[in-house]
Design brief:
two-stranded antiparallel ribbon; 2% strand; globular
């Protein structure tokens, strides 16, 4: 784990301008601080599960309330626009809209990550984590049902197709391979998955969406990644960093996994994913949550943004506290 952060710190100091060094190092060390603190407190997966319930409940209430406000008072988006343009330095601020089932066209809530699709993916990850690990760590079914129900509404209102895909695929996998769920629960889950897939199909049925995503996420991304291998192979290994547009290799494709490799390098991304795989494979159905992590990297930036990055390290450190076999990986 320390080597993972060392790679990121070296990448930050070596590739980024001086003005960006403190911000990047602070971000890197914030994740490391979470890991070390949890290890020192002997925080376990039971604590992480309860924390996940609280986090899902709070973020869902925030997202649902934001949707309600924008739906009835659309002028409130000007405050978000001011934040993004004046504080984040976004040059062009576009208000995200979505054609919601029943509700019609509405403004997507930006969520706690200040980006609708990323916040929706966070909610989907939390829902999957809570459902997958409910048998091992859930003590109160009422809080579980309330949090998951609110989480599903938050995902729906986020309008994030990545979040929809996370739920559809992972619900299907969990229903097919779970040994703990009853037949009735599995049938309900598969029905919900089918409904989610129908929402995605309805979105892609519009030819402009299908053609755009097919070209940008497949052909354009593959072509750019191939060019990186040929011209900037070293940058591909260690990352180009978060730098200006004049930096070779700094390119925003439609696939966040490729963007993350370009920014942080193959070594960093591969090490982090290996760490997540090692920590989840000891849990029953843990691979379902790992699949959710992979799917969340298909489009918008999610995994390496706050608070998702710190939350995933919280899971890793909690597992390390509970599993003696996993501790061998950390040492």
């Amino acid at each position: 784990l320390l080597s993972l952060f060392l790679l990121a710190i070296i990448n930050s100091l070596f590739y980024n301008s001086t003005s960006e060094n403190l911000q990047n190092v602070f971000y890197i060390f914030s994740g490391l601080f979470i890991y070390l603190l949890v290890r020192l407190l002997d925080w376990n997966m039971n604590n992480t599960y309860v924390f996940s319930l609280i986090l899902l409940f709070c973020t869902s209430i925030y997202t649902i309330s934001e949707f309600y406000l924008y739906y009835n008072y659309p002028f409130l988006t000007s405050y978000v626009g001011h934040y993004k343009q004046e504080l984040q330095g976004v040059l062009i601020f576009n208000i995200p809209e979505n054609d919601y089932f029943i509700f019609g066209y509405g403004i997507k809530p930006f969520g706690v990550m200040m980006e609708a699709s990323s916040s929706g993916a966070l909610s989907a990850l939390l829902v999957i984590f809570i459902i997958v690990f409910q048998k091992q760590y859930s003590k109160n079914r009422f809080y579980l049902y309330i949090s998951v129900l609110l989480g599903l509404f938050a995902v729906f209102f986020s309008g994030s197709k990545t979040a929809y895909l996370i739920l559809g695929v992972c619900f299907t996998l969990w229903a097919l391979f779970s040994n703990n769920a009853s037949l009735k629960t599995k049938l309900y889950t598969l029905t919900l998955s089918l409904s989610i897939f129908l929402l995605i199909i309805d979105f892609l049925a519009e030819g402009v969406h299908l053609d755009k995503y097919f070209d940008r996420m497949l052909f354009d991304t593959a072509q750019f990644f191939y060019s990186m291998i040929g011209s900037n192979f070293f940058d591909l290994l260690v990352g180009s960093g978060e730098v200006g547009q004049n930096r070779i290799g700094m390119h925003n494709t439609e696939v966040d996994l490729i963007n993350s490799i370009i920014r942080y390098g193959v070594f960093f991304v591969a090490t982090f994913l290996l760490l997540m795989y090692k920590s989840l494979k000891y849990e029953a159905q843990g691979m379902v949550f790992f699949v959710a992590i992979i799917i969340s990297m298909l489009h918008y930036s999610v995994i390496f943004k706050f608070p998702v990055f710190s939350y995933l390290l919280l899971i890793v450190s909690s597992q390390a506290n509970m599993n003696k076999t996993f501790n061998k990986l950390i040492k």
